[in-house]
Amino acid sequence: MRLARFATTMVRRRRIVVAVWAVILVAAAVVASSVGSDHRVDYSMPGSGSARAQELLGERFPEQSGDTVQLVFAVDGATLDSPAVAARIAELQAEARTIEHVTYVRIDAQSPDGTVALATVQLDATAEKVPLSTIESLMELADHGDDQALGLTVEAGGGAVQTAEMNESGSEGIGLMAALIILLIVFGSVLAAGLPILVAVF
Fold first, then answer.
1. Cys staple from 125: which of 6, 33, 97, 129, with CB 3.0 to 4.6 Å?
2. Using one digit for the tens of pLDDT, what is the confidence trace for 90-112?
3. For domain 63-164, is the CATH number 3.40.50.700?
């Protein structure tokens, strides 16, 4: 009998029930994204040879003791040695050097045909200790580094970049969930609320 009354109440107040559960889901997503991604993996073994080597590297060559981000430069219809392309790449490298926690930027490898180059961006600390804003700045540099007139494409990669992209994806998911809740309350229908979200995503 009690179960029947409970079910009847849920049906009569279905909009409120759906809204409450949606709020709970968003809250859970927020907590998961803020706590779940805050993890550390530590393989250090104090006193071991590798640990001592890492300590010496930090003491003698601090500029090389951190993690790295890779920048890939690819050009279509020209070569990296073309004056305009080379000037643009040099400009982007100089801009990268001005970003906080970047110690140096250098081209480490180039394809035999001169159309693709790999640059290493050295950080002064590990990815866990470098602010997310530093990685995001490097990602933004790669995004606005593309030049259609020159046929130049720039991409950022590496473990630190992958972590930052995962964080961005989590934030976007929370935003979509919040938008879905608002639309659900406004339209009162899952179909009507979900349609604008599907259009926006796809």
1. 129
2. 999 999 999 999 999 999 899 99
3. no
